[in-house]
Amino acid sequence: MTADGFLQSAGRLGAVVGPLIMTARQALPLLPPLTYGVILIVSSFVLPFLPETRGLPLPDTIQDLENQ
Length: 68
Hints:
This is Solute carrier family 22 member 11. Keywords: Membrane, Transmembrane, Transmembrane helix. This protein is an all-alpha fold. The protein has a domain of 25 residues. The protein is 63% helix and 0% strand. It has three helices and no strands. The longest helix has 21 residues. The radius of gyration is 17 Å and the shape is elongated.
């Protein structure tokens, strides 16, 4: 799975789960802040493992992409 596909999946998952979490606020008042806080903390630990792409040329063909 590419980073673009992963980000699209994560965005769609957030669009589905976000309203459900806010609805659950009536039963569990701490659920929304804890959920969003955990997502932020986990993403901050994952961020250093993403490859650096600044200054790299964009691939023009699939062959260029495979060679990267």
